[in-house]
Amino acid sequence: MASKVEETIPMQPTAAPQQHVVVVETVDTDATPCCCCCDDGCEEENKERGNWSCNFESILASIGYAIGPGYLWIMPYLIYRHGGLFLLAYFFSQIFIGFPIVYLEMALGQYTSQGPIRAWRGVPILQGIGVGMVVMSAIFCIYHNALLAEMLYYMFYVPGDLSSTASCDNYWNTDRCVSGCRQEVVEYDYDGGYEPYNYTRLICGGLEAPAMEYRQFYVLQLSTGIDDMGAVRGPLAGCLFLAWLMVVLGLSFGVKSLGKVAYVTTLVPMLFTFILFLRAVTLPGAANGIAYLLWPGNLASSDYYFTMITAIVHRLSVGHGGYTTMASHNRFHNNVLRDAVLVILIDFLMVVVCAIMIFGFLGFLAHQIGTDISEVVASGPHLVFVAMVTVFSHLPAGSSWAALFFLTLVLLTYGSQLVLVETVITSLMDLIPKGLMKNLPGRESGLRSKRMMLHGVMTVAVCFLFFLLGLPYVTQGGVYLLTVVDSFNAVIQPDIFILLECVALAYLYSPSCSRCCPALNRWLSDLSHMLQHVCCFCCATIVNGMTAVAWVYYIPMVMLAQVIVKPLMWWPNSLSYQSYYFPTWSIILGYFIMSISLIMVPLGTLTNIIIALVRGKPSEIVQPPADWGPYLSKHRRVGSRGQPGQPVDDTRM
Q1: Fewest 10 Å CB contacts: which of 6, 45, 332, 612?
Q2: Which DSSP string do the residues of 96-128 spell out, in sequence order?
Q3: Range with the lowest mean pLDDT among 52-61, 176-185, 501-510, 623-632?
Q4: Alpha-carbon gap, residue 576 to 581, rounded angstroms
């Protein structure tokens, strides 16, 4: 079908200001879709690159990416620390800040059908945004899977050996261990300068709890410090290998297999979380814990609002490239606006359910050992590996509930890990020139296509490399290395990338007629072209206008404030793990890790400037390539960026 889009374009000023109307012909042979799960049809639209079997799978994968282990071990503590009103403020911040960012990243991926690196070719001067995202995600998924390995270990061993974890009669216990201890704060620091890292242990009269000693002296066999990495822990290394094998199997056929796995990694944890929620709220003492969680709190805290924005950025995993990757496999006219709304709403519901569930259990623990709820609150790995293990040791049929809890934790972590790794693999696949892909033997489409077979080979290679790089995290000193890397990677980088995203599309994005078309108008025109078949186009237009205000004005200001204030308030000038303080060289290592992803932005800018100058076309640095835009010719608009079917220029980044 053909449609006409009118764009009002200001001309050069003359004696009497006037406007010129350009009619852009839209070439689109798609039929108007229906409003169902596969609202744009279930046929393979992009046979070369592949689409989701059904759009519902894309939504599930995006939700699974957003909902990670942080919903069980970080968000409950943040709500408790800042009071119940934090939850209300978090909801409105998600609507006005989280949603526009998620929508922007998903829309860009769907419009271009490319991963982060190639998608940001539309703004060549800032194409390094995508490269930085992929590098940051690669570093993150390596140690993220090390955490998954420890979760797998606990899922396999703790439920069947729960009595040993709550006992001080084991060979690994010290004379400081006393059963039935309570939890108190031992050390307090900040995790990577943006989230409170509550270094706690269950103690009674200064004596460590059994669950803490079980983790430190039996599971981790903790060394004296980062200078003493020790030997690889065999059981954890086996679990790490299993974790990467799970990733390989989940991504063996790209989004085709990822979409099927998403049913398990998203829907099943939701069901299990609801079951755990029902059990938690019916326990004695749970009401006290929930009341403590929802107490109004102090709105005047100096870091209240910055903590809230940081929680949104890191809990939604925006600025990492995952949403762009997932949406790049959508069909072109998919209702990406609806997808972003669903991700935000379901994400918030999971935050509420997980927080109430955790504090219901902690209220029960405080009731059992006869102490105040404030003395059993923890965050981070200590919450799930120490406090929750102690909870299950006091709970009737505790082994079954422990197995269900750690299975839920494993599935949540696995779902987000799949998207992180797929972001890296998809970005690498997109860098392969089309000419080289066509010369490879094999089919052009289907599960046995050239791209699918190459994707499988690359998945195995990347996962094996990441497994080797992850082995240091499962040594006796691995937890120290993990603390350093986690404290500096993906800390301030996502805020910078989000700031640059908004600047790029709202101020710098321009087609060949950049002298007469404002950047934001062009991007909104592209969105309207992509969403022209949605059920309520008028509603989509209104929401686009509202999100445009966010992209142009307050989100850049909020992110700029984060970038400036966060280092001043929370910068990790010193780093510690419990009572151990890291040496200076490890802090320098952390800054180096932080710089790896950030340096990609100026490096990408410099590279594209050199390429443009060598080609004798300096204007290319501020204009998208002629072939940039919708991946398929039938979705391109005549007169906007070249004719339909224009070949891809692979000489530019």
Answers
A1: 6
A2: IIIHHHHHHHHHHHHHHT--HHHHGGGSGGGTH
A3: 176-185
A4: 4
Domain presence at residue 15: no
Q: How far apart are CA 159 and CA 334, in angstroms?
A: 44
3-state secondary structure of 405: helix
Q: Is residue 648 part of a domain?
A: no
Write out pLDDT tens, residues 2-48: 443 333 334 334 444 444 433 344 444 444 444 444 444 566 788 87
Q: Identify the band that residue 205 occupies on the pLDDT scale cut at 50, 70 and 90.
A: very low
- Helices 75-82 and 85-93 pack at an angle, to 10 degrees, of 120
Report long-range pairs for 647-651 (Cβ below 8 Å, ≥24 apart). Answer: 648/433, 648/434, 649/625, 650/433, 650/434, 650/435, 651/611
Residue pair 293/355 in contact (Cβ under 8 Å)? The answer is yes
Beta partners for 191?
195
Q: What is the pTM of this model?
A: 0.86
End-to-end CA distance of the chain: 34
Q: What is the chain's alpha carbon radius of gyration, rounded to the nearest angstrom?
A: 26
Name the DSSP class of 265: I
In a domain, 11, yes or no: no
Do the Cβ atoms of 285 and 364 come closer than 8 Å? yes
For residues 324-342, give the mean pLDDT.
93
CATH of the domain at 118: 1.20.1740.10
Report how many domains make up the chain. Answer: 1
pLDDT at 85 over 50: yes
Q: Which of 210-214, 361-365, 376-380 has the lowest mean pLDDT?
A: 376-380
Q: Which residue has the higher pLDDT, 433 or 71?
A: 71
What is the number of other CB atoms lying within 10 angstroms of the CB of residue 222? 20
Whole-number Å distance between alpha carbons of 441 and 310: 47
Residue 613: partners with Cβ closer than 8 Å, 6 or more residues away: none
Name beta bridge partners: 201.
184
| Element (DSSP H or E) covering residue 224 | none
Q: Which domain holds residue 434?
A: 39-161+232-473+488-635
Q: Where does the pLDDT of residue 517 fall: very low under 50, low under 70, confident under 90, or very high at 90 and above?
A: very low
Is 406 a domain residue?
yes
Is the model more confident about 78 or about 442?
Answer: 78
Q: Are 534 and 138 in contact (CB under 8 A)?
A: no
Q: What angle do CA 480, 486, 490 make, to 5 degrees?
A: 165
3-state secondary structure of 134: helix
Q: Are 583 and 566 in contact (CB under 8 A)?
A: no
